[in-house]
Structures are given as C-alpha cells and as structure tokens.
Amino acid sequence: MLIDRRPWSALPPTRVQLAANSDWENAYEVPPSGADEWLAEHQGKVSLEVFFTESIFLGVHLTKLPPPTRPDFVRALLASLKNQTLAFARAFWRLPNGTPLLSPDPPRALEVGVVDAWQNNSPAVIWKAGERRPTLTRLTKPLREPHPTRIALEASFANETWIGRDVSTRTKDGYTLNEAELTRAATDFLT
C-alpha cells in the first residue's frame, strides 16, 4: 500500500482539518487542544482529514460516529499523531471501537481535485471500479490551470474514507497538474 512505501511512509503529520458538508473551502484547522466547540456547532455531516506534509492526506466522513463522541475521537487522534509518521497509520487511523479506517479493499473511484478548493474547481472522476484504466480525458479545464493550493488524486473507498496524493508541480503561477505524476499515483492506487 502507498503508505508503506518510501518516501511517503516517513512523512510526519502536519495538520488536521474538519469540514461540514464537505465544504473544504471553509475547513477548520484543528488546534492541538481539539475541536470541541467547532464540533458542537456542526452536528451534521462532518469529515476529517490528516495531512502528512502537503504530499498525502487521509480522510474520513464521521457519519458512523454519533456527534457526542466526535470530540473524543478527534482528541484521541491528535494525541496518537504525536511523534508519528504515515507508516504508523494502521495504528492510529481507527474508529474508537478499533475498526480500522485503512481499507484493505481496492478503491471504488479515483478523483482529481484542488486541495481545500475541491468543489470550486470542477473535480473529475477519472476511474471507477469496474473500469479497465483511468481516463485522463475526463480532466476538466479548471484542473489544468494554475492554483494557489496543490492538485491531488484522491482514492475513495467504500468505508467512507479516502487517501489523497499530491499530483502537482509548483510553478511561478502556482500549482499545476503534473500528468506524469497523476499517472504514477493512479497506478500506485490501483496495483
């Protein structure tokens, strides 16, 4: 799996963020003390992402956790991330009952989007389970333009989790899609 390979496995966690209703454009960056107040104000569909530098991120929809248990989950996750790297994700990326969040199954889809601006920049599903290979002709025009944040390939899984990987190159105009890196990342996720 991608998280077991270098250089990815050595990456430290750098930020944790929450979003209500998949509104990553207005994500809440979780401070070390937790997110109790924010979670009290957002009882509905809440999602969480953990970034490892800006190269890889893990995400989960918290729909399986009742709202009153979410602050404890976030605090426990923050505590477990201290002095860790992505290589230890199997140990800390779990629900409070111990259910692993890293799916052993293949992804159900691969989608390309702009980090922290996913919905505003026409994300594109380039592969779905059952298709032979990713189709880059599905990439939208906005994904081929420069952006102030990175462009990522996200593998989504049936257990409402995802793994995202940076597939952009920094230029003087911002981050632009690197199709060679996108192809490598898609291969990593599908093999």
Walkthrough of the structure:
The protein folds into two domains: 2-92, no CATH class; 109-190, no CATH class. It is built from four helices and ten strands; from the N terminus they run E-E-H-E-E-H-H-E-E-E-E-E-E-H. The protein has helices at residues 36-41, 70-81, 89-92, 179-190; strands at 13-20, 28-29, 46-52, 56-61, 109-114, 124-128, 151-156, 161-166, 168-171, 174-177. The strands form two sheets. Strands 2-1-3-4-8-7-5-6 form an eight-stranded antiparallel sheet, with helices on one face. A hairpin with a 3-residue loop joins strand 3 (46-52) and strand 4. The model has no long low-confidence stretch (mean pLDDT 94).
What is the topological layout?
Elements: E1 13-20, E2 28-29, H1 36-41, E3 46-52, E4 56-61, H2 70-81, H3 89-92, E5 109-114, E6 124-128, E7 151-156, E8 161-166, E9 168-171, E10 174-177, H4 179-190
Overall 3D geometry?
globular
Summed over residues and divided by their number, the pLDDT gives a mean of 94
The number of domains is: 2
Proportion of β residues?
25-35%
Helix proportion: 10-25%
Short descriptors:
2 domains, two-stranded antiparallel sheet, globular, 191 residues, alpha+beta, eight-stranded antiparallel beta sheet
Q: Brief description of this entry?
A:
The protein is an alpha+beta fold and 191 residues long. The protein has helices at residues 36-41, 70-81, 89-92, 179-190; strands at 13-20, 28-29, 46-52, 56-61, 109-114, 124-128, 151-156, 161-166, 168-171, 174-177.
